[in-house]
Amino acid sequence: MCGIVGYIGKQQAYPIIIKGLHRLEYRGYDSAGVALLNGHLNIYKKKGKVSELEHFIAQKDNTGSVGIGHTRWATHGEPNDVNAHPHASYNQKIALIHNGIIENYAAIKTELLKKGYQFQSETDTEVLVHFIEEIRQNEQCSLEKALRLALTKIVGAYAIIVISEEEPRQLLAARKGSPLVIGIGTEAGEYFIASDATPIIEHTKNVVYLNDNEIAILGESGLHIKNLQNVETTPYIQTLDMALESIEKGGYDYFMLKEIYEQPNSIADAMRGRLIAKDNYVRLGGIHHYLPHLTNAKRIVIVACGTSWHAGLVAEYLIEELARIPVEVEYASEFRYRNPIIEKGDVVIAISQSGETADTLAAIELAKSRGAIIYGICNVVGSSIARATDEGAYIHAGPEIGVASTKAFTAQVTVLTMLALMLAQHRQTLTKEQFSFLLHELENIPQKVNKSLRLNDSVLEIAKIFKDARNFLYLGRGYNFPVALEGALKLKEISYIHAEGYPAAEMKHGPIALIDEEMPVVVIATRDSSYDKIISNIKEVKARRGKVIAVVTEGDVLIPEMVDYVIEIPQTHEALIPLLAVVPLQLLAYHVAILRGCDVDQPRNLAKSVTVE
Questions:
Q1: 205 and 268 inside one domain
Q2: DSSP designation for 197
Q3: Could you tell me which residues come within 8 angstroms of residue 44 by beta carbon, excluding any fewer than 6 positions away?
Q4: Partner of 537 at 20 to 30 A CA spacing, among 182, 414, 507, 510?
């Protein structure tokens, strides 16, 4: 889950690399480092954020037109200067940066120790760079061949970039299971490499996405891509569909707040060209070919992690109620380890914002091996999940930089809602009137989300009251249960307050023991089919002196009389309430975290894209 960046060309590499690391810092921020080639190899590393590395390098030699940089989310070894990347070979001639995990590093390290190699760090990456050096010396070969031979012996996932003092006008990159994108510069021999497109977009829009088990050789001789059998392939050049302003804060203090406020647009973008309510039209072109498999499925299995798993739970309610197809929602991180029952022709939907989530990719591989048809729902064009699935749909939310997902959640739910409506239409499980009403309601969601965002000031006042709480409980029923889970997750992720989401009816089966006058309880209590039941749950909390914050439907007069604080959201069909109810919960988490002095864009111990298992 680290961020890596590289440059080779005629410009000075360091300014490009350090800016790229700032762009990639959402992928990891335990430590950072750069390696620069200017006749000799200079490596600078520092624990902490990229700004601390930048300060450290300020008075040092940072010249050179070839360089690599890394911002780390620790897996092997604690965050410190020594464990930071880049790592150098024993002879200090080769430098390497790495995103991923080398699973058999211990065995390789044991053999290298027997040969006299000494290790400075606790990382698997240092083992790899020493291993490459050992092969190069034994084989008396080029760096390219040594890298290729080393990778045939490696077990695990990696995205790596390698430079060498002995081959100073060349930069090598390789990937397996971790993303790498190559930007083609405007001048001959100029290339940019990064974990994703965010460091590249301001330099070029022409990119090549490296495939698994491929090595890229970049330099004055151009761009050459080979597989591990040394067979060269033709690069497929794509044009980035991303604007520079989409990865900048645009006047907001934090990316998270910007992305919360982008939701009216991101939801509309998810529907654009796919839903026209007046024509009773809804179509996801990316799944049209396999639509008969979906409509005739005996069951659908959804695999996802974190916030995407919560979106999958909403989809379970949507698909089962609207299309009457049984749905199971699985944690991708558990799916592959419990020998799930998947048979040929089964339908599996994989959801991931980044399209690179390692556990979800592993779940896809398992399901494919058993003959399942795989659909992907992701945000990043060209991502691993987009390429690994049979068909699917992009959510078109635009870049999401904040680690705590906001607009990706609502865009995922929007796409999954359209999928449920497509299935309902083809299965004829809704009347024409019901179908038309839901299409019109969904089409109006962006303006209703915009209205929900006007609650910001009132949510801030509630946040001020509860910023020092030690625990929160979130309750919801039906469609609002996944919203309760998502609201609790947002608060945990960025404010470090313990929070739990529960089905409201389950409260009396244990969690009610926690409730006293110190316990804030957030209840999603909108007017829907569970309204009378949720009132009973609120009364149970109030009988035990709990402080209730209720998210209610605009105009409700009953619940506001019995709770402590009220957040009103616009009226909509209960199947679409998650798209509105989650917005004030995102704002609540944001404001509580800010009031507690937390960095909401880079919360401790977390990274945006979990590309390791």
A1: no
A2: S
A3: 33, 34, 35, 53, 56, 57, 60, 62
A4: 414
The tally of domains found in the chain comes to 3
Strand order in the sheet with 391-394: 327-331, 300-304, 347-352, 373-378, 391-394
* Same-domain check for residues 385 and 477: no
Which residue type does 240 have? L
Report whether 151 contacts 174 (CB < 8 A): yes
**CATH classification of the domain holding 41:** 3.60.20.10
CB atoms within 10 A of CB 509: 9
Q: Which whole number is the average pLDDT over 175-197? A: 91
**Which residue of the set 46, 492, 547, 608 is catalytic?**
608
52 plus 199 within the same structural domain: yes
Of 430, 321, 423, which is closest to residue 375 (Cα–Cα)? 423
Q: Which of 2, 305, 378, 598 is catalytic?
A: 2
**Per-residue pLDDT tens over the stretch 272-290:** 999 999 999 999 988 878 8
Looking at the DSSP assignment, which residues form a beta bridge with residue 351?
A: 377
User: Which letter does DSSP use for residue 379 in this model?
Assistant: S
C-alpha pair distances (Å), 394 with each of 322, 378, 397: 22, 5, 8
pLDDT tens for 483-509 read: 999 999 999 999 999 999 998 878 778
Which segments within 79-213 are labelled E, that is strand? 87-88, 94-102, 156-164, 167-176, 181-184, 191-194, 206-209
Q: Is the peptide bond before 86 cis (omega within 30 degrees of 0)?
A: yes
CA distance 122 to 108: 14
Is 432 marked active-site?
A: no
Residue indicated by tokens 């390791």 = 612
Q: Are residues 412 and 461 in the same domain?
A: no
Instruction: Tell me: do 300 and 425 sit in the same domain.
Output: yes
Amino acid at 157: A
Cβ–Cβ < 8 Å for 411, 270: yes
Domain that holds residue 317: 254-443
What is the pLDDT averaged over residues 222-239?
92
Catalytic residue flag (residue 608): yes
Cα→Cα distances 263→120, 214, 539, Å: 46, 37, 33
